[in-house]
Amino acid sequence: MAQPLAASTTASSAADTSSGADSGANGAGAELQDSGATFDEVTGADASTVAILDAKIEDAADGGVSADGTVGDSSPVACPVGQICVASFPFSHSGDSATLKTSAFNSYSCKTGADESGPEQVFAVQVPSAGFLSAAVYDGAAVDVDVHILSALDASKCLDRGDNHARADVNAGLWYVVVDTFVSGGKAQSGVFKVDIGFTAPSMGPCQLQAGVMKRVNDGGKWLAMPATGPIVMEAHLVTAEEPPPYPATATDELTDHYALSQQKTGFMLYRSQVWAPLEGGSFYGAGILSPKTFPVVEEAWYVNMYWTKESRPPPGTRMILRLPDSSRAVVVSAGHETGPGNLAHIGGTAEESHFHLGTGHKSVMLLGIAVDQSLPFGPRSCQ
């Protein structure tokens, strides 16, 4: 995860709450986006404000911004009225679109047919380097707010949008996440919402894979040549070393806490839809083949499994690489913690984090192999 430029600065109503790390159209796989605009051009900030921000951003690159968003003479980072400025990740904010006063955008180029003429909240997001920007929104019953990522404060500059989440590959600079209220039958579906914003700078370098075979359960001696290309299923979540007993008694027990822990450790944000792994003979939900006490949180977020035999199963924490065929987009994943899927037509499985970054889904075809370099960091990677 990239180190934050500065703590977030808000210009929202007192009823809203925001927190930093403690708290489509182009989508995944698109070329890096470049906003190509200065802060004043897209926000309307005056020259003195821009000068202050430019100085603070330059100092931030040198590590000169303090935890409270100040630098040098301790003057605060300016944030345009009505916007919420974000420069540290992961970031979370809770609000109520019924209390918002701004409704500048009625529709977006990502989906022109969607009526988004209800009130919106704009988040100005300062990204420190090239990487993966994502945002997820959660709303309540009878509430419908959508999330958009823009390269400028212009509805025609929409990079991605979604009912639940949006994502884009971006360069260093200023980007916008807009939570906007959907209108149905002439009525704005306003109400309480929560938005999570994350930024991840993928590691970069070689993605060499070991050649060999993988013996799988009930393969009849027909070993799988590795690396292999084939369908990768969507796997459920597993309990980790930082989640002590008593372990989950249902598919959703303690799941919200698990999501929060994973996001805090990885900085990776997406709309969560997967529950704990089913019992399948275990004594609790979310059980892998080993004790949770040996499963690091970060490795659970990026885990992979195959239906390997006990003798072929890699040691826990072995680096494997999942990669889109004919693409540099990849994820370094952790093997050895779980076994499956039982259908040998599916070569492996991985958690929703990997699928979200790769832009894939259940049973999407990917390349999977054991990494030559076993020192690679887990998570998104750009193969060079």
Could you characterize the architecture of this molecule?
The chain contains five helices and 25 strands. With 384 residues, the chain is mostly beta strands. The protein has two domains: 9-201, Jelly Rolls, CATH 2.60.120; 205-383, RlpA-like domain (Barwin-like endoglucanases, Beta Barrel), CATH 2.40.40.10.
Tags for this entry?
384 residues; disordered N terminus; eight-stranded mixed sheet; six-stranded mixed sheet; Jelly Rolls; Barwin-like endoglucanases
SSE layout and pairings?
Elements: E1 9-10, E2 17-19, H1 39-43, H2 47-61, E3 70-71, E4 75-76, E5 83-86, E6 91-96, E7 120-127, E8 131-139, E9 145-150, E10 158-162, E11 165-170, E12 173-181, E13 183-184, E14 187-188, E15 192-200, E16 203-205, E17 212-214, E18 224-226, E19 228-234, H3 255-266, H4 297-301, E20 304-305, E21 318-323, E22 329-335, E23 348-350, H5 352-358, E24 364-370, E25 379-383
Parallel strand pairs: 5-7, 16-25, 19-23
Antiparallel strand pairs: 1-5, 2-6, 3-4, 6-15, 7-12, 8-11, 8-15, 9-10, 9-12, 13-14, 17-18, 19-24, 20-23, 21-22, 21-24, 22-25
